[in-house]
């Protein structure tokens, strides 16, 4: 086996998109029990934005290639790997390395792409689906017919959550940020009597509007599970909307994402606003949790990467659900990573954003 020249997107120093640059380097042959993937698509996640801007703590020090998921073709194999893998269409998760045209990854985290799925769909599937499945099943302890509030329901994770919840016969209120997204979800799920959708803004009356929306599909009036990827002004309304024994699962903080220019040196005002939001971020008293008999829990999916057995168990559980592949996918070219992340953070996107790699 030989080395392979590849293009990568590299964060030289976290804190600014001025330090996010494309380079060429030599990728060594795959080590034992690894495969080399000729990458066809790279999936974007909010963690990528936070990583580049230095807002993501679960990363190693120094220079880093972002990216948590990909799809492609197995080009070569390391020792201990069956030759049956060669040429197979695959997808998988990675721990910060997938913004590259070729990657070496442990074969235990690689899955074969279903014959009836495109490479775009395969790339868009793993991170968002694992995220919401873990949130609903492992932390939320989802049961049939429970009431669930899903924020950012038209995003990649939101759509994946709706797909899972429809399989579980849950009663769902989903929130979105724009009227166009509301129309899209009503068109897709309008015939499902257990699903209804509302605008997230304005936050000041969100709690009342969420209760009214739930009354359309359930007389209980409160939620068993809230999936919160936004936080900020919605944290306390989310908490108040929980039933006794309800679970608020926090897995994102979109409200803390800088909303201005991705070159923050020229847009310091947005960083001042971000710092203010951080100082006044929600805090909760453990004594109040006991008194209210509610649960607030959070997680970062990257820590599951350290447990091969557990992650593969979740993949297998998802396989048995026979979910449809992701259907809302926005494509950018690999060289347009900054433009793609800019669009992602704008809040205008629906579904998943992927980078197409041309070879």
From TrEMBL:
One Pfam assignment: ADH_N
List, alphabetically, the SMART domains matched: PKS_ER
Residues in the signal sequence = none
GO terms (molecular function) for this protein are: oxidoreductase activity
The Enoyl reductase (ER) domain sits at 15-355
Top-level division of the source organism's lineage: Eukaryota
Q: Which PANTHER family match?
A: QUINONE OXIDOREDUCTASE-LIKE PROTEIN 2 (PTHR43677:SF4), SHORT-CHAIN DEHYDROGENASE/REDUCTASE (PTHR43677)
Official protein name in the record: 1778_t:CDS:1
* Native source organism of the sequence: Dentiscutata erythropus
């Amino acid at each position: 086996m030989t080395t392979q020249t590849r293009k990568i997107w590299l964060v030289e120093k976290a804190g600014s998109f001025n330090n996010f640059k494309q380079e060429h380097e030599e990728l060594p042959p795959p080590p034992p029990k690894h495969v080399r993937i000729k990458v066809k698509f790279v999936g974007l996640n909010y963690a990528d934005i936070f990583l580049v801007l230095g807002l993501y703590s679960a990363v190693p020090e120094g220079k880093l290639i972002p990216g948590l998921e990909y799809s492609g073709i197995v080009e070569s194999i390391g020792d201990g790997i069956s030759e049956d893998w060669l040429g197979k269409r695959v997808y998988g998760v990675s721990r910060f390395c997938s913004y590259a045209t070729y990657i070496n990854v442990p074969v235990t985290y690689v899955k074969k792409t279903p014959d009836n799925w495109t490479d775009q769909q395969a790339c868009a599937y793993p991170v968002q689906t694992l995220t919401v499945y873990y949130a609903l099943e492992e932390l939320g302890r989802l049961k049939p017919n429970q009431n669930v509030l899903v924020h950012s329901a038209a995003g990649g994770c939101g759509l994946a959550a709706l797909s899972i919840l429809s399989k579980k016969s849950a009663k769902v209120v989903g929130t979105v940020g724009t009227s166009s997204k509301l129309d899209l979800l009503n068109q897709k799920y309008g015939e499902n009597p257990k699903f209804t959708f509302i605008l997230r803004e304005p936050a000041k009356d969100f709690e009342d509007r969420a209760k009214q929306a739930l009354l359309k599909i359930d007389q209980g009036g409160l939620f068993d599970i809230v999936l919160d990827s936004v936080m900020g002004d919605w944290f306390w309304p989310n908490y108040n909307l929980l039933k006794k024994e309800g679970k608020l699962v926090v897995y994102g903080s979109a409200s803390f994402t800088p909303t201005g220019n991705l070159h923050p040196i020229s847009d310091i005002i947005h960083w001042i606003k971000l710092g203010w939001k951080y100082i006044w971020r929600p805090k909760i008293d453990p004594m109040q949790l006991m008194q209210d008999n509610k649960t607030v829990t959070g997680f970062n999916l990257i820590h599951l990467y350290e447990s091969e057995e557990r992650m593969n168990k979740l993949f297998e559980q998802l396989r048995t659900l026979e979910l449809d592949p992701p259907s809302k996918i926005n494509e950018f070219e690999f060289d347009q990573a900054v433009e793609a992340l800019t669009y992602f953070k704008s809040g205008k996107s629906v579904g998943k954003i992927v980078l197409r790699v041309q070879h």
